[in-house]
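Quick entry between incubations.
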Amino acid sequence: MKSINKHNGKVVPLDMVNIDTDQIIPKQFLKRIERTGFGKYLFYDWRFKSDGSINKDFILNQEKYKNCSILVTGDNFGSGSSREHAPWALNDYGIEIIIAPSFADIFYNNCFQNGILPIKLDKKIVKEIINKSKNENGYKLNIDLDSQLIWDDSEEISIKFDIEKFRKYCLLNGLDDIGLTLKKENEIQQFESTRSLTGGVVKKIT
Amino acid sequence: MTNNPKTLFDKIWEKHLVDENEGQPSILYVDLHMIHEVTSPQAFEGLRLAKRKVRRPDLTVAVADHAIPTWKGRNTISDPIAKQQVETLTKNCDEFGVTLYDMHHENQGIVHVIGPDLGLTQPGKIIVCGDSHTSTNGAFGSFAMGIGTSEVEHVLATQTLRQFKPKTMNIHIEGSLPNGVTAKDLILGIIKHIGISGAVGHAIEYTGDAITNLSMEGRMTVCNMSIEAGGRAGMIAPDNKTINYLENKPFAPKGKDFEIAKKEWLDLRTDVGAQYDTKIIIDSNEFEPFVTWGTNPGMVAPITGKIPNPKHTVDEDEKSSISKALEYMGLKPDTKIQDIQIDRVFIGSCTNSRIEDLEAAAAIVKNKKINPNVSAMVVPGSTLVKKIAEKRGLDKIFQDAGFEWREAGCSMCLGMNPDILSPKERCASTSNRNFEGRQGKDGRTHLVSPEMAAAAAIAGHFIDIREL
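Done. Structure below.
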């Protein structure tokens, strides 16, 4: 997994609450068996009209937000289906940081598995960032994961954000969870050797 | 009262701890890992690239359910990409030694329906699947949750999952459910009450007479939609109904083993005096037959109610959400729910496709015909459910009324197969999500119980089943 530390990028606002994973990546694209190439399907039903032409009204299609890498949005982003295709699509499109007052649990977890940094900020600050990115051309934010700081060039926004220590450590080092867990082979074997006793209810299902 | 009272959730969590370190996610052992074609191919590919094996194929079961067709006698998949995905599942299961129920197998069905069907789902287990509705299995007093594909790969490789411990939430329903109110109405009402992010970060335990009075299948309906309230999982403590349901199921323990298991299962309950992080009490009189009117499962109105008017909302976010939803749904504020005309009816999905659901819907359509403006289909949750239904003659009742009778699968719940709505078609659906485009681009979904869907199919619009 790629590591994240410092990031500087253009912000695109999606000023809505409860954006679900069906919107992030519609179901017709979940049939692909690859992990890459989902970016062109991101927010497909919003980015494209029924005839396949570009919906110029949708914010991601506006010239001003070309090459953005930071998405700022409302409460409960990523609700619904567990599809990891959602962070794959965001990442493939170029989004590396997502800022919202809150995230749905599974989506939040999935971000960390894919080198995307989801940042939870106070609703008031999120609104301020949304407004600035709407009103200023090429509005950018700087993020320093190590020091957990986020600020804009004018420093009108300058704030520390929270993140679990372990998640930060994994992102900073691009660590793969499986590799870490496999180092616990002894503990897993130990658990398995006593499992029928501790569980007592688990039958093999061969 | 014990000295250290614990919740049901805490007990299951502690029993599965492989390793625990301050500030890190715990490593939990997984008892049952169910997989399907949509969220597993990239996980197997990851294993292959890292030259890893499936650690416990004996605790892993795969099924094809999402992308397969449901037409009668299905023998091929016409969509080449879906075909490749299903074939990839077969190839991966062969290569890694995982049991697979493909679309021709008698055990095939929606992944969350077959776990209970087969007795794979048991109290006290940790059950995961790359699918958010895995919470269905919590009806048996297991900790069951949806995970992403990277986590699927993690479970395949290690049989464990890394998780930060969620908080616990008790949703207690005070009193018994009023007549004519189903398990589906109960969970829609709960989501209406706490909101679609009301349970984020929490594992929910449902308690109260309204919950324990439900059949096992009703409990599954409730736990199934825990994710629609944002919950990490939903669970109900096992009782004699749970035991009776599991006895003689193919994968349930047998004989003396069953007696031992039974004793342990019945011990799995929240101790008196145990504290939940959050407790919510809801009066059962709040529940009525419900219909969703918008584009998320929290946008719920009683059948006797009206479409809300954004003018009456103060919160700006909510105001714009309502307006946007009504525009998408093609509905006007203040319209009576019972005046909404429908084009399609879908009875199916992991929420409401079990035998009792089909029985309840069939009782309403028996000796009647569906409205000429409506087309309707029933998609049983599993091949086993279909077989039982046919034995009881339900297929004939539905077909005589004008319903299509299909093969088992996820079907139009998410329309990954050919079963989709056309733009602007309005559907009364027993599924779990009414998101934009969920059942087909620009399709309009109203979530209801099987009884309400069946009644709407006959009337051509929503009606109050209590008046039938």
